[in-house]
Task: structure prediction
Amino acid sequence: MDGTPDWPGWPSKAALRYRSAGYWGDEPLGDIPRRQAALRPEATALVDGERRWTYAALEDEVTTVARALYGVGLRRGDRVIVQLPNVAEFVLLWFALQRLGVVPVHAMPGHRRTEIGHLARLTDAVAHVVPDRHARFDHRVLAAGIRASENAVRRVIVVGDVGDHDDFIPFDALRRGDAAGREEEDRPAPGDLALLLMSGGTTGTPKLIPRTHQDYAYNARAAAEICALGPDSVYLAVLPIAFNFAVACPGFLGTLHAGGTVVLAPNPSPVTVFELVARERVTITAVTPPLVPHLLAEARENRPDLTSLRVLQVGAARLPDEVARRIGPELGCRLQQVFGMAEGLLNLTRLDDPDEVVCTTQGRPISPDDEVLVVDRDDSPVPEGEAGELLTRGPYTLTGYYRSPQHARTHFTEDGYYRTGDLVRRQPGGNLRVVGRVKDQINRGGEKIDATEVEEHLLAHPEVVSAAVVAAPDPELGERSVAFLVCAGSPPDARQVAVFLRERGVAAYKAPDRVRVVPEMPFTAVGKIDKRALRALL
Result:
C-alpha cells in the first residue's frame, strides 16, 4: 500500500492504473491560480461583493499569503483548522496553504467548542483561522478557548478585527506580506495529503476524510468536464464554502481549474441568490433540496432575470421527484441532480439525460473507474432495481479515515470497498436512486447529524435517564430530528434541550427539532434501544 501512517493509500496496482489512465496528474492544487494567471491574467477569477480579483491578482495574493504563512512558521504537513464563511479570504488562504503543502482542516462556521476541540486533538492542528464575528457569534472567543486548551494550536488568524487579542494574526497582515518568507522550499507532491474533510459519520465524534492533491484534483476536474465548465462559466457558491459540494463537485475548485469565475454568496436567501445571478451573469450554482421551494416561490413572485443560468445542481439530500419536475419549467435552466459524499464517490445526472432520468434519479458515477456494488446484508449483490447498500471504490474514494484504523473493519470490505451506508436502487444505464440509509444518521437538509453523538450529550442532562434520537420525515428538510427521553424529574422541552446543548459547545443544527418524553424505552432482543419501534410512534 502507498500512503502514510496517518491513513492508508490506494493499493499499488490500483494507483498505477489510475495514473496510467490519466486520472491522476502531477499538478498540486496550489498551482491552479498560477497556471490560469499565465493563460488569462486579466479574466475575472473571484468576486466577493464589490471586491474582484483577476487571475493575475489572485495569483499575486496567493503567493503573498503563502510567503507570509511560511514566515509565521507554517511548514509542509502542518494542519490548520479553517473555519470561515463565504468570503474571498477562504479562497486566498486555501490556495496559499496548498502552495505550502499545509493541510486545511475544513470546519463549518456553526461548529463550536466540541467539534473544533475534537478536530484540534485529532489532527494536532498548529493554527486556527476564524472570522472576527459571524452570525452574531464571536469566533475570537472560541479560538482563544481552543488555543488555551489544545497545546498544539499555536497561532490564531482572524479575518477582520482581532479585538483585544493582540497576539492573534490579522489576515490583512498576511495579505500585506508583513511576515514574508520563502514558500517554494518544500513543495507538496501529488500524492501528499491536501485537505481533511469532515464526515457526518455514525460514531460519537466526526471522522476526517483524507484527500490528496491528485485524487481531489481529478474529482473537481471530472465534475467540471461533465458540467461543461470553461472560461465563460460563472459559478455561484451559495452553500458553505468549506462544504465538499461547494469545493469540488465541481465547486470553486473545478471552476477555477476550468478558467471560469467564482462568485461568493454571503447568504443563501433567494433574493441574494437571484440578485447575484442577474448581476454577475451566473451560469451554474448548487443548492440543497430545502432551498429549492424557496427559489421557486421567489421566481414566481418577483420574476428575476435568470436568463444566464444554465444549470442548477441539487444535492446533499434527496430531491422529491415532484419538485425536480418544476425546476426546468419555472426557472428556465437545466436541473442536475448530485449524489455524493466527502469520502469520494460522486454521481451526477448528465446535462443531456432525458428529463425522466434527471427528475427521478440521483445520477451516475463521474469516473469510468468508479466501482459500484449494491448488496444485501450479507454483501451479496442484489438484482438490478432492488434496494441494497451502496459499496464503492475508485480513483478518488478514500481507503481509510484519517488516524482512525479502528474503522477499517466496519467501514470497508476486505477488498477495499467503502461501505457508504446508503440504500440505493441501480437503474438501467447505471443511474442510482437513493431510497434510504443503513447508518444511524439524520440528514437534516444536507446537514448530517450523528444520533449517537447527540444522545451522549443528552445523557449528561441531570434529568435525563435514557435518550434516543431518530429521524422523522419532513417535506421541507427531508428529515428532522426527534429526541425520545426517559426522565427522572421535570423533563426539558425542545427549547431547554437546545440551550443545554449550546452550553455544552454543540453546534446549533444538532439540537433536536422535537422532544418526546416516554415512560420507558423499547428494546430489541439483544438489549439495544429499538429505534424502529420509536419511529413507529411518530
Observations:
- The longest strand covers residues 464-474.
- The chain has a mean pLDDT of 94.
- Residues 21 and 401 are 25 Å apart (CA to CA).
